[in-house]
Design brief:
The chain has a domain at 28-88. Helix content is 0%, strand content 22%. It has strands at 28-32, 41-47, 50-52, 65-68, 80-83. It has a five-stranded antiparallel β-sheet with strand order 3-2-1-4-5, with no helix packed on it. A hairpin with an 8-residue loop joins strand 1 and strand 2. One of its GO terms (molecular function) is serine-type endopeptidase activity.
């Protein structure tokens, strides 16, 4: 939001929200290139062995590890770290075409 006087304007964008307690959102995943590295993308655990994310998360940095139920964006403090064994993008995904919405 622009401030006519210049400077930063602070806004509360989430009403009556709060920080989620550690260990409460176990379907949240962080996709990383190393076990103790930074999360480069997020995803959702949709089955015991499947994470759903965007194809862009698999394009620019090699996804090697998923941290399931992690609260922190990096490190090994929490979450279960699991080696990724296979990545499969949508058959219509074309990384050279830029951001798109695939037909349903």
């Amino acid at each position: 939001m622009a401030n006519p006087a210049g400077g930063h304007v602070e806004r509360q964008l989430i009403l009556r929200g709060g920080e989620v307690q550690i260990g409460m959102k176990l379907s949240t995943t962080g996709i990383r290139s190393t076990f103790d590295g930074n999360t480069s993308c997020g995803g959702a655990l949709i089955a015991p062995t499947h994470v759903l994310t965007t194809a862009a998360c698999t394009t620019y940095e090699e996804p090697n590890v998923v941290s399931v139920g992690t609260h922190y964006i990096n490190g090994t403090m929490d979450g279960k770290k699991i080696k990724i064994v296979m990545v499969k993008n949508h058959t219509d995904f074309d990384q050279t075409s830029g951001p798109t919405t695939l037909p349903s």
